[in-house]
Structure formats: C-alpha cells, structure tokens
Amino acid sequence: MTSYEWYSTLKKPFFAPPSNVFGPVWGFLYLIIFVSYSYVFYLFFKKSLTVAEVAPFLLNLAFNIAFTPLQFGLKNNYLALVDIILVLITLIWGMFSIYKHSQIVFLAQIPYLLWVLFATALQISITYLNR
C-alpha cells in the first residue's frame, strides 16, 4: 500500500483539508522558511547570533524534515504527533530567540506558526481517531 493509499484510509476530522491543499501551502511556507532561515544563518555566521539563538532554527528544520518519513514512510501517527509538537515548540522558541535581532524574521514566521498550529490540531485528531 502506497503512502497516499494509506493516508486516504485514515479517519480524519471534519476540518481536514483535501490532500491537494498541502502541496501549495507547504510550497509557500518553504519559501518563507528558506528566506528567513537563510537570514538567521547569515546573522549567525556574521557572529550576530549565538549558537543558543540559532539552535531552535536548526532543530526546527530537522523536525520538519523528519515529519514526512515518520508519517508516510513509517506510517506512524504517534511518532508524527510527537514530531509536529516538536516542530511547534522549536518554531515558537525560534521566534522568541530572533525577535530582538530581526522583527521581520519574527513576523515572517507567523504564517508558518499558524499552519503548524493547524497541522498539530490535525495530527492530534488523526492520531486520536485512528488509535
């Protein structure tokens, strides 16, 4: 069974968007992430940010990248749920750590934050409905 077939068999909450919404939304968000995180790493290499200030951005990337293999590769809703919560935590941590250095990067993260909040609620629901 392919990942798409597996996902389509899962019980989903009433607010789950159609599958074809995820690609365009993530495409837009990945553009924001790329531009804003590039600036964060630029500030780090310029010695304007410490390792502690850039750490949440690195962790967020790692957790973000891990979600698809956990959810669709391993087909594990529980690990995907833990992962999306870690994405959310590191995103909020990163927003707080960058605020005093770049309000533009902070503000640019708001669409990402809103989507991750939605994705977290969606994953909680999917995990609960398919326990």
TrEMBL record:
Protein's UniProt keywords contain Chaperone: no
An example Gene Ontology biological process: tetrapyrrole metabolic process
Membrane topology classification: Multi-pass membrane protein
Pfam family, any one: TspO_MBR
Record's GO cellular component terms: membrane
Annotated Gene3D superfamilies: TspO/MBR protein (1.20.1260.100)
Annotated keywords: Membrane, Transmembrane, Transmembrane helix
Database matches in InterPro entries: TspO/MBR-related_sf (IPR038330), TspO_MBR (IPR004307)
Segments crossing the lipid bilayer: 25-45, 54-72, 78-98, 110-129
Record localization: Membrane
Family assignment from sequence similarity: Belongs to the TspO/BZRP family.
Protein name: Tryptophan-rich sensory protein
Organism: candidate division WWE3 bacterium
